[in-house]
Structure formats: structure tokens, C-alpha cells
Design goal:
Blueprint: H1 2-30, H2 41-48, E1 71-76, H3 78-86, H4 89-95, E2 99-105, H5 111-115, H6 122-126, E3 130-134, H7 143-157, E4 162-166, H8 176-189, E5 192-194, H9 196-202, H10 218-232, H11 258-278, H12 282-293, E6 298-299, E7 320-321, H13 324-342, H14 359-369, H15 374-382, H16 396-399, E8 418-419, E9 426-427, H17 436-444, H18 459-476, H19 487-490, H20 498-508, H21 524-534, E10 537-539, E11 550-553, E12 559-567, E13 570-578, E14 589-596, E15 602-606
Parallel strand pairs: 1-2, 1-3, 3-4, 4-5
Antiparallel strand pairs: 6-7, 8-9, 10-15, 11-12, 11-15, 12-13, 13-14
Length: 611
């Protein structure tokens, strides 16, 4: 009781102290003199809404993680015990949106011992949508047979569950035989492999081991639990779209059918194995497979295989069904081919990796896969894109039905067409199938998150960049226009809206600047103050900005926009409330430009929290 009273008094003191501080600032600004900075009306609105300083004892606690209702069950040995008891594995999975039905883990467990516990845990397994197995550290005979028995037993209890298996690694052993057996069995039994070994070898300092070289320190268990939860992602990882958060296009129509998603899930272990070797997103393989042969596992009569290799030799891909081994071989070839295409992308888009795929690199690679026709670059220019840097935006193979301007059903006549015959002209309208990037978006999505998470992936910055680029495309194509369309970002208010836009993008990317007010922060200085409070503000001097940072400009004006890329002494930025001139905010729009890092108007940068 006394402690609660003390906390209440402390909170009241903090609120009044802050109000007194604001009053002093207002008096200093408006009481005379020539201050360098002024509090704008937006800043005053933000102060009234308490956006800069929300209660530090209550944020991240008042709103529990949202749950999708999807369930998960984990089976493991002593390493899983460590993640459960010392690494908060359950909490990290729940933060991703999973409902944890149980973590069954015992020191020394093998697959054989785990089999003996299945019936006793049947109810929890039966109600699980995803099952994670982390066994193989403790040796046992006939490991391949035991794997088969365990997968069969789990499917007996939950026939529709997605099963993932964490492979093995320690400082004492690489578990080559056990891991090779897992790969072989995953192809046959259609379960996913979480490649813990590759992660541990790539980032050894992140996962410190205990002196025995097998188990981990507390820090190591926390990091490994982070890796597993991040790898699993949220329950909505398949079937989400970057713009809508689900398997729907811009107009609310379903992109991928249930049948297509089911087939992709069945093929996912093959895609993932090839993608891991070539270091590309596995979803790109699924999309190419869908577009080239409708996800068929049978070679068509044209002799080009399920991925339609144009340069195939006669007889290389005989007509008819392909075995798992042959499908894996063709998928390996497709992955190498896609990776090779990325090297021919436009400068800045040539780096294509599985961990942090750039939106433009993915689009540009799909464009290259389809032939890089200059006709589509011209079509992109006609829609307001830069044909030199964004030719892929004009390709129906890549972007068909991405928005109303590129939907054959709604596009302005003779503005959105497709080459329908080899070496022929563009014909109107384009075909009705979805573009490769739209389908890729339906498989990857942008997962919702919050600023309370311990960590965010590097992919959060790319989400910010991608969303900003999507909004830019809507303005440059004329889908959004000056006037009142900026109300999309300002919650309907008429005001200078650069801060509204930047905070809106952060919210859509899953890293809102504040937990309340739908993430909206309408003031430039309010954004800076939030950055200072959260430890994410960087003074201009001594800091090199990164993509996704908010540029704060408070010298000779007040403005914010977003860093898209940095090259040498320059950065490319996208921002709202730009280009209106003397006509003001109603004449302004979302636009992009290049800026010097040493621009005197820049005071600092705010980064996504957790990055």
C-alpha cells in the first residue's frame, strides 16, 4: 500500500514537473528574443496528447502481446531445458503471437525417449498448429528410423501441424551425420529444418557456451531462444501481404488460394534447402515455381523442367513426374540461377540475401528473371517511376495488380500492358495473373510488432524503406494527390504532415515510435524527444545514418524525412509534406531527393527502437 502510494506520488510529481518544464519553454520561446528553434503547433498538439513522455513504468506492460490463436508445442533435451528455464523461450514465442501449449524437455532426452511421452501429451499436441523438435544432441542408434517414427506419431496426433526440427551443433561436435540424416528425412517427410548449426558458426560470439562446450551460459540460452523464435516468426508468416498484412491484394481480393498455399507448404523444405545454399529468400523459389509451372512436380512437354529453364538441352528434362531427388536438383539449379540474376541488377540492387532481402533487389531480380525488357522500363516511366532505377515497376511479370494503376481491370486505358508474344509489342491490357512480387509479398508479409520487444531484426529497417517506397509510388503514379490525401497519415487533421508521415511508416513497419495514438506523432521535436528518451537519437556529428532512420532537421526550419540509402557523402531520402512551396501543406506530397550528409539543416537522426 505504501509503495503504491509512493509510486502514485512520484507519477504525479513527474507529470507536474514536465508541465512546468513545458511552460518555461513556451515562455522562453514566445516571451521575446530570437530563439533558434520554436515550438510549432504540431509540437504543442503532441505535448497535449502526452506523446513525448508516456509513463515509463506502464509502457510495454499495459498492452499484452496480441495473439493470433495459433498454437505451438516444443519437444527437446537439456538444451531446450536451458532455453525454457533460462532463455525465456515461452515468452519470446508468445511475443511473436504464438499460444504455447507446452515445452516438453528433459535432460538426456533422445528421440526414442520423446516417443514414449507422446501419448501422455496427446491433448497438447493435438491442439498444436506448429510443433518444434530440438533433439539429436544425445546419440542413439537408427536415428533415421526414430525420426520417421516420431514424425508419424506427431502427425497421428495432429495431422495438419507444421513440424520444424532444430539441427544440432556444439563446440565438441558438428553432428555431421545426424544433421545429414535430418536433411534427407526432411525431404521425404516434409518437415522444416531450423538451421541452428549454420547460425552458430556464422555468429559464434552471440551464443556463448558453458565450459563443457555443449550447453550454454544464460546469455547463450537467451540468444538461442531469440534465434528460434525469430526463425519461426509469427503464425502469419505464410499468407500475408506487405500492404494489407494478410493474403489479400490492395483491393481486398485473395492472392494465393488455399490449394496453392498448401502445395507451397509441402514443397517448402525443398525450397528452403536450395535457398540456404544459394543465400536467397526461399519464397522467391516458390513464386518462380508457381509462375513457371503452376507448382507442378511434373516436367511439361516442352522439355524445360518445372522451373522452365530456357537453355535446357534436349532430353535433359523428360516429360512426366519428377522424384524428390530430381525436384531438389532442379530447385538447386533455379536457386543458383536466381542468385546469378541478382548480380546483373541495377547498382544498389545487386545484394540479394536470405536474411535481409532488399525490396528493390527482389523486384529487380524477378525483372531480370523475365528478361529486363526496355519496353517495361518505358511503361514504368509513363506511370511516374524512374525508368533508370525502377524499370521493374513497369513489368506485369513483377508488379501486376500491385495497385489500381497496375491492375488490368482498373488501369487507365493503354497505360498498363504486357508483351504477349515473343519479341512482340506491348498489348493492352496486361494479363490477369498476379505479379511475382505481389505473390512474394503474400508469402512473406510485414509482421506486426511493437516497440517493447527486446530485439528487432535488421529486416525492420528494410520494412521502413519498403513501405516508404510503396507510398512514394502511390504519389508519383497519381493514385494519391495533393489536397487532402495526406489525411491518410495525419488522422484527418489539416496540418504540416512530415512527422505524421514518418511516424505512420514506422507504425506500419511494426516499430511504432509510441505505443498509443496509433503510433501517430505529429511534431518534429516530439519525434526528437522520443528518440532522446528511448536512446535512439543520434546527434549528426559522429554518426553515419542508416536506411530506415528518421532525419531530424531543426536548423533553419523544422522537418523530418526518412533515410532510404546512403552512398559516400550522400543519402537518398523520402518524406511527406514536401514540394508544396508557398502553397503550403495542401499542395505538398510524398517525394524523394538526394541530400548531403553535411547539410547544415540536419541536427540528428532517430533510429528504429531495438536496432
Amino acid at each position: 500500500m505504501i509503495m503504491n502510494t509512493f509510486k502514485s506520488m512520484r507519477k504525479i510529481y513527474r507529470i507536474y514537473a514536465y508541465r512546468v518544464f513545458c511552460l518555461i519553454i513556451v515562455l522562453l520561446v514566445f516571451g521575446g528574443g530570437n530563439p533558434v528553434l520554436a515550438i510549432t503547433q504540431n509540437d504543442l498538439n503532441a505535448i497535449k496528447q502526452n506523446t513525448p513522455f508516456y509513463d515509463p513504468e506502464e509502457d510495454c506492460l499495459t498492452t499484452p502481446p496480441s495473439s493470433t490463436g495459433k498454437t505451438i508445442y516444443v519437444i527437446g533435451d537439456s538444451l531446450t531445458v536451458g532455453m525454457r528455464d533460462n532463455g525465456d523461450l515461452s515468452g519470446k514465442l508468445e511475443a511473436k503471437g504464438w499460444v504455447v501449449k507446452g515445452i516438453e524437455a528433459t535432460d538426456g532426452d533422445t528421440v526414442t525417449k520423446a516417443l514414449q511421452k507422446i501419448d501422455g501429451n496427446a491433448e497438447a499436441i493435438k491442439s498444436s498448429d506448429n510443433i518444434v523438435v530440438a533433439l539429436g544432441t544425445n546419440p542413439e542408434s537408427s536415428f533415421d528410423v526414430r525420426i520417421n517414427e516420431l514424425i508419424a506419431k506427431l502427425h497421428e496426433k495432429s495431422s495438419s501441424a507444421q513440424i520444424s526440427w532444430v539441427n544440432a551443433y556444439s563446440l565438441k561436435s558438428g553432428y555431421e551425420d545426424a544433421n545429414a540424416t535430418l536433411v534427407s528425412q526432411s525431404n521425404t517427410l516434409s518437415f522444416k529444418i531450423i538451421d541452428w548449426k549454420a547460425e552458430a558458426l556464422k555468429n559464434p560470439g552471440t551464443y556463448p557456451f558453458a565450459p563443457d562446450g555443449i550447453h550454454h551460459t544464460t546469455q547463450g540460452y537467451k540468444a538461442k531462444a531469440d534465434f528460434i523464435s525469430q526463425t519461426l516468426g509469427s503464425p502469419s508468416d505464410i499468407g500475408t501481404n506487405p500492404q494489407t498484412g494478410n493474403n489479400l491484394d490492395y483491393a481486398g481480393r485473395t492472392i494465393l488460394t488455399d490449394g496453392q498455399l498448401q502445395t507451397i507448404r509441402a514443397n517448402q523444405p525443398f525450397y528452403e534447402k536450395s535457398a540456404q545454399t544459394s543465400d536467397i529468400p526461399w519464397q522467391m523459389l516458390a513464386v518462380v515455381h508457381l509462375r513457371e509451372s503452376g507448382l507442378s512436380r511434373s516436367n511439361p512437354a516442352n522439355g524445360q523442367g518445372v522451373y522452365q529453364f530456357v537453355g535446357a538441352k534436349p532430353g535433359e528434362y523428360p516429360t512426366g513426374p519428377v522424384s524428390d531427388q530430381e525436384f531438389q536438383r532442379q530447385t538447386d539449379l533455379a536457386a543458383d540461377f536466381i542468385k546469378g540474376k541478382a548480380s546483373g541488377n541495377i547498382a544498389g540492387n545487386t545484394t540479394l540475401t536470405a536474411q535481409n532481402p532488399s525490396t528493390n533487389a527482389v523486384k529487380d531480380t524477378f525483372f531480370g528473371y523475365n528478361g529486363r525488357s526496355d519496353k517495361y522500363a518505358q511503361q514504368a516511366a509513363g506511370l511516374g517511376f524512374d525508368k533508370a532505377t525502377q524499370p521493374f515497376e513497369g513489368s506485369p511479370y513483377v508488379m501486376n495488380k500491385a495497385d489500381a494503376k497496375r491492375d488490368p481491370a482498373t488501369a487507365v486505358p493503354n497505360t498498363w500492358g504486357q508483351v504477349k508474344r515473343d519479341h512482340g509489342p506491348i498489348e493492352y491490357p496486361a494479363n490477369n495473373d498476379y505479379g511475382a512480387f505481389v505473390e512474394y509479398g503474400a508469402l512473406t508479409g510485414i509482421k506486426s510488432g511493437d516497440s517493447c520487444n527486446d530485439t528487432i531484426t535488421g529486416d525492420a529497417r528494410q520494412k521502413i524503406v519498403g513501405i516508404a517506397q510503396q507510398e512514394l509510388a502511390l504519389w508519383t503514379s497519381g493514385t494519391l494527390k495533393p489536397g487532402t490525401d495526406f489525411h491518410k497519415y495525419s488522422q484527418g487533421r489539416n496540418e504540416n504532415w512530415c512527422a505524421d508521415f514518418s511516424s505512420w511508416v514506422y507504425k506500419q513497419a511494426g516499430v511504432p515510435l509510441i505505443p498509443g495514438n496509433d503510433g501517430n506523432v505529429p511534431g518534429v521535436d516530439a519525434i526528437r524527444q522520443i528518440g532522446v528518451k528511448n536512446g535512439t537519437y543520434h546527434d549528426k556529428n559522429g554518426y553515419t545514418p542508416q536506411p530506415g532512420d528518421i532525419v531530424v532537421r531543426q536548423n533553419n526550419g523544422s522537418h523530418v524525412n526518412l533515410v532510404i540509402s546512403v552512398e559516400g557523402s550522400k543519402m537518398h531520402v523520402i518524406g511527406g509534406n514536401q514540394g508544396g512551396g508557398d502553397a503550403g501543406y495542401q499542395a505538398s506530397k510524398v517525394s524523394a531527393y538526394d541530400d548531403q550528409l553535411d547539410n547544415s539543416g540536419i541536427t540528428g537522426y532517430v533510429s528504429p527502437e531495438g536496432s
